[in-house]
């Protein structure tokens, strides 16, 4: 597809027409190959501020990204889980899902976290990793060693996909939610068979549910009704799993309803990193710890569906408060720093 045809594609999209799956796949492949300039990429991304993305477009974009990925299939032997939020909820929370990954690892489960720099928030997972001196790698043996030693591996998205690296400057410049937020959880290069996904609205929840139903992934999709892409404990939250769809109030599990201010992630990555440390050191506020625990518990129940949620909360709580989560983080840093 040359510049003329990208112009035609953009004109169609500006006219609120949808791409076929094959067209979407071609667009993203050529974007990754550097065939579009930053203005064209920005124009393409901007279309999705004006209209919703279709399932066919998502599947085409995803297909392109997965075909280009650095293959990590050998990590499937660990049967790990990924815990990820779409981002883009505009809430600038601290790194809840990344902390939940370390709590889950501390509880003895294998985790392969796929993450990136924050595009619409101050500190994404990769920002908080770098603040702690983590050096990103795409070496398979390195990630196997990390899983063997610390129960967790971290895959920095741009290393594993050329398209994500190509669009990073545009995403950062736009500083708002884009369709790459939607794609991120679907393109973990491992393609994990277990995943917890947080989404920012009910429409997205339905969209992902449809996509996951077509896969062999054991999933839990969560959304807090006041707009968080994780279980925030600030409001009623919805959870869809392979088995069921349910609504929960924080009080159901003995948690006090959280105040949104208590979830603030700071104004800089350095501030976010200090919150991260306080949670792992068990010196954070009760609300900060509870939010991490409930998200980790969701991961544990996704792995162990025979356990009731209260039992999973107890396992996650013990992993955090006993220091096992911090121990997993220290071991992880010793290998990845």
Summarize the structure in words.
This protein has 337 residues and is of the alpha/beta class. The chain has two domains: 3-68, Up-down Bundle (Transferase, Pyrimidine Nucleoside Phosphorylase, Chain A, domain 3); 77-336, 3-Layer(aba) Sandwich (Pyrimidine Nucleoside Phosphorylase, Chain A, domain 2), CATH 3.40.1030.10. It contains 15 helices and seven strands. It has helices at residues 3-14, 21-32, 38-50, 55-68, 96-106, 125-131, 140-150, 157-160, 162-174, 179-183, 202-213, 269-280, 286-303, 309-321, 324-336; strands spanning 81-85, 111-115, 152-156, 194-198, 218-224, 237-241, 245-248. The protein has a five-stranded mixed sheet, with helices on both faces. Strands 2-3 form a two-stranded parallel ribbon. α2 crosses α4 (55-68) and α13 packs across α14. The longest helix is centred in the C-terminal third of the chain and has 18 residues, at 286-303. The model has no long low-confidence stretch (mean pLDDT 93).
Keywords:
alpha/beta, single chain, 2 domains, 337 residues, 15 helices, Transferase, Pyrimidine Nucleoside Phosphorylase, Chain A, domain 3, Pyrimidine Nucleoside Phosphorylase, Chain A, domain 2, globular, 50% helix, 5-stranded mixed beta sheet, 11% strand
């Amino acid at each position: 597809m040359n510049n003329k045809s990208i112009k035609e594609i953009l004109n169609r999209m500006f006219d609120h027409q949808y791409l076929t799956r094959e067209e979407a796949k071609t667009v993203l492949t050529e974007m990754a190959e550097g065939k579009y300039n930053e203005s064209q990429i920005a124009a393409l991304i901007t279309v999705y501020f004006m209209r919703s993305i279709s399932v066919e477009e998502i599947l085409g974009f995803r297909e392109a990204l997965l075909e280009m990925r650095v293959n990590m299939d050998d990590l499937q032997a660990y049967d790990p889980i990924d815990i990820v939020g779409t981002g883009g909820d505009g809430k600038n929370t601290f790194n809840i899902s990344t902390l939940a990954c370390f709590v889950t690892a501390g509880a003895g489960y294998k985790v392969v976290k796929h993450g990136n720099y924050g595009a619409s928030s101050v500190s994404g997972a990769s920002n908080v990793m770098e603040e702690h001196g983590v050096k990103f790698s795409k070496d398979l043996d390195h990630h196997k060693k990390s899983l063997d030693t610390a129960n967790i591996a971290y895959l920095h998205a741009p290393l594993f996909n050329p398209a994500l690296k190509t669009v990073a400057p545009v995403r950062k410049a736009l500083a708002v939610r884009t369709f790459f937020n939607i794609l991120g959880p679907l393109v973990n290069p491992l393609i994990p068979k277990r995943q917890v996904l947080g989404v920012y609205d009910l429409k997205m929840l339905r969209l992902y549910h449809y996509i996951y139903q077509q896969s062999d992934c054991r999933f839990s999709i969560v959304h807090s009704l006041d707009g968080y892409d994780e279980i925030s404990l600030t409001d009623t939250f919805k959870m869809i799993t392979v088995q069921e769809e349910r609504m929960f109030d924080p009080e159901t599990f003995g948690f006090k309803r959280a105040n949104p201010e208590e979830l603030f992630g700071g104004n800089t990555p350095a501030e976010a990193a200090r919150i991260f440390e306080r949670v792992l050191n068990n010196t954070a506020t009760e609300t900060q710890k509870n939010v991490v625990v409930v998200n980790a518990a969701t991961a544990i129940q996704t792995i162990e569906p025979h356990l009731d949620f209260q039992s999973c909360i107890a396992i996650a709580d013990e992993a955090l408060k006993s220091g096992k989560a911090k121990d997993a983080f220290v071991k992880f840093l010793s290998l990845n720093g």
